[in-house]
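Quick start: what a row looks like.
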Amino acid sequence: MRTVVSAGEWRHAARALAAGEAELFGLWASTGEVHMALRDPAAGLRILSVPVSEDRFPSVGRHHAAAQRLERAIGDLYGYTAEGAADDRPWLDHGRWGVRHPLGEAEAAGPGEPYAFLPVKGESLHRVLVGPVHAGVIEPGHFRFTVQGETVVRLEQRLGYTHKGVEGLMRGATLARAAGLAGRVSGDSTVAYAWAFAQAVEAALGVAVPERALWLRLVMAELERLANHLGDIGAICNDAGFAMMLAQCGALRERVLRASMAAFGHRMMRDRVVPGGVAADLDAGGVAAIRGVLGEIGRRFPGLVRLYDETASLQDRTVGAGRVAPALAARFAAGGYVGRAAGRDFDARRDLVYPPYDRVELAVPVLGEGDVDARVRVRIGEVEASLGLVAAALDRLPEGPLRAEVPVATEGTEGLAVVEGFRGDILVWLRIGGDGLVERCHLRDPSWFQWPLLEAVVEGNIIADFPLCNKSFNCAYSGHDL
């Protein structure tokens, strides 16, 4: 699964990424090594590792832009330098941690230098600064617009404000403690993150998950997808000035959360997916609650879709706005609705299939327009698919145990998993030591490959359309910042 390569082989892989012969799925470090997850048609998903020499490794970002922010994060966390990097500015480290390179050879540090935003030259330009504190109850991130009149010439993002040191907290943690941390990386994706972590543990230790637990995981994951997509559809329409959709979709989202509470004892189903299986069963009352909300959405959602289709003022805002070019989506291997709305036909549930998705029919909506409207329509298609998946899972739910015993590792072992969250593919790689504790765990949110595309699509749009474009992406702050 993981191959140690020379610097020359590493550079060859980076050039293959640049040539479109493979896709970048992750780039991270551990003590003395840097790792790269690649997916290509011939070899599937694999990990390459290059030893660090004098705290330096060959830059992938100089060849492949999607790697640049990941390399900058490695520099912040480990102090490793990407040789030949196109951008070596700090990314997660804002000079407020009190230490430098907390996962490497940590050293005390004072306040950092002011962040060097990229220069923009031209006539009649001015800047509009937004965030990191926003006018709503949302997470912090800074957006610096350079505009000419109303037209955006450049958007530059500054993230990292929600960095929590998750990967540092993982070091030396028990599997139970680490599973809890994974489920808290991004609150709206707690099931997906917990599933990805559990699956990585199970791969590392050879654990066979009971059938009932697998189907319950699917039910939870698809309920999470339903709730988030319903919320997003309403929020996008609200940013286009159509508050009725926000109210109606918000009510349906609340129904899903209440059904989740009734079925699994927690609205977000946090800590319900664990290594070896699940920590909550589904009784007859829970099944009835879920079937009830599926029926309600099935009755009401088609009318909301018609309302979206037939409201000309809404279509005028969403069609053509914030267009992601298919070539750009492919280059960044953008996952989820961002990629699928721009022609990238990838879904980890199907293309890196994991049980029980190998036993269901999965409809993956893919469009080519790449605009706000396409991202809404992909979500609509996924809502419809999730309704069917949950109903099928309830019909096929077998009896049996909820959890398999997870053995204690007696020697070092590693595991890798990719799970499809509502935003896209979540990657988890971990190394377990011979004492059974986590030595290293890396969690990669799909937003790492989506945030840069938001910068690109806003250029040429009017600044008033940024909230609409941003909401249609709905990238994670917490999941990205770790």
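That is the whole record. Residues 211-239 form the longest helix (29 residues). The mean pLDDT is 95.
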